[in-house]
C-alpha cells in the first residue's frame, strides 16, 4: 500500500470546518438550520437534520421514513448522490485539491490527522475516567444515604422517633464525599479534616 495515499482520516482532517462549502460545491442542498427539514437525499419533508458539529464533521441524521440513517460528510454525499463511500472520498479529496498534493503536503495532512486522532483518543479516555469518577462518587453518596436511612429505621424501631444528630460514621462519610467532590470537580485537594479540627 502507498504510504502517501490519503485515506478517510486524512481527508476528514483536511475537510474539518469546511463541510458546508464542500457539500454545496458537490451538489448537496444544505439547509440553513439544525432543525428537522426536508432531506436532500430521500426527499422526506421533515426527517433530516444536521448535527451541531456539522461544519466540523459533516454529521447528519435522516429518519428515512423508518429507515434511520446517519453519518459523516462522506456518508451524506453517498446518501444524496448515490455514490459509494470511496467515490465520496475521491470527490472530497478532488474538491480540496488533495488529489494532486505533493508528497510533503500529504505527509503534513497525515501528521495532522494522526495528531487529531490522538487528541480524540485522549478525550475519550478522559471521558471514560470522568464517568468512573462520577460512578464512584454516586456510589459514595448512595452508601451515605443508605447508612442514614438504616440508622433512622433502627432509631424509629427502638425509640419511635428519629434523632437529628448524625453519627460519627455519617460525618466521616460526608467529609470523605466532600473531599472527593472538591478534588474531582473543583480541582482542589480534599480537606484534611484531622488537621482542620
Q: What string, H for helix and E for strand, traces the elements in order? A: HHEHEEHHHHH
Poorly predicted parts: none
Q: What is the rounded distance between the termini?
A: 68 Å
Task: Determine the strand fraction and express it as a percent band.
Answer: under 5%
Q: C-alpha Rg, in Å?
A: 27 Å
Query: Strand count, sense and closure of the main sheet?
Result: 3 strands, antiparallel
Mean pLDDT: 84
Which structural class best describes the helix and strand composition? mainly alpha
For the record, the count of structural domains works out to 2
Give the quaternary arrangement of the chains.
Answer: single chain
Strand segment count? 3
Number of helices: 8
Order of strands across the biggest sheet? 1-2-3
Features:
3 strands; 8 helices; DNA Primase, Chain A; mainly alpha; three-stranded antiparallel sheet; Phage_T7_Gp4_N; 2 domains; 197 residues
What does this structure look like?
The chain has 197 residues and is mostly helical. The protein folds into 2 domains: 94 residues, DNA Primase, Chain A; 71 residues. It is 60% helix and 5% strand. It has a 3-stranded antiparallel β-sheet with strand order 1-2-3, with helices on one face. Helix 1 packs across helix 6, helix 4 packs across helix 5 and helix 6 runs antiparallel to helix 7. This is Primase-helicase zinc-binding domain-containing protein. It comes from Candidatus Thiothrix phosphatis. InterPro entries: Phage_T7_Gp4_N (IPR013237).
Amino acid at each position: 500500500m502507498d504510504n502517501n495515499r490519503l485515506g478517510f482520516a486524512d481527508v476528514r482532517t483536511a475537510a474539518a470546518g469546511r463541510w458546508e462549502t464542500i457539500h454545496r460545491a458537490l451538489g448537496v442542498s444544505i439547509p440553513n438550520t439544525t432543525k428537522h427539514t426536508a432531506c436532500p437525499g430521500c426527499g422526506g419533508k421533515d426527517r433530516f437534520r444536521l448535527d451541531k458539529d456539522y461544519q466540523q464533521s459533516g454529521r447528519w441524521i435522516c429518519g428515512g421514513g423508518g429507515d434511520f440513517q446517519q453519518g459523516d460528510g462522506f456518508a451524506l454525499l453517498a446518501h444524496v448522490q448515490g455514490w459509494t463511500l470511496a467515490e465520496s472520498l475521491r470527490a472530497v479529496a478532488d474538491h480540496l485539491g488533495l488529489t494532486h498534493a505533493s508528497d510533503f503536503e500529504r505527509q503534513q495532512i497525515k501528521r495532522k490527522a494522526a495528531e487529531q486522532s490522538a487528541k480524540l483518543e485522549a478525550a475519550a479516555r478522559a471521558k471514560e475516567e470522568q464517568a468512573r469518577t462520577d460512578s464512584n462518587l454516586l456510589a459514595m453518596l448512595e452508601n451515605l444515604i443508605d447508612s442514614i436511612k438504616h440508622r433512622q429505621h433502627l432509631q424509629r424501631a427502638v425509640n419511635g422517633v428519629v434523632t437529628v444528630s448524625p453519627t460519627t460514621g455519617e460525618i466521616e462519610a460526608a467529609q470523605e464525599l466532600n473531599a472527593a467532590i472538591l478534588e474531582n470537580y473543583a480541582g482542589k485537594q480534599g480537606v484534611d479534616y484531622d488537621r482542620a479540627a
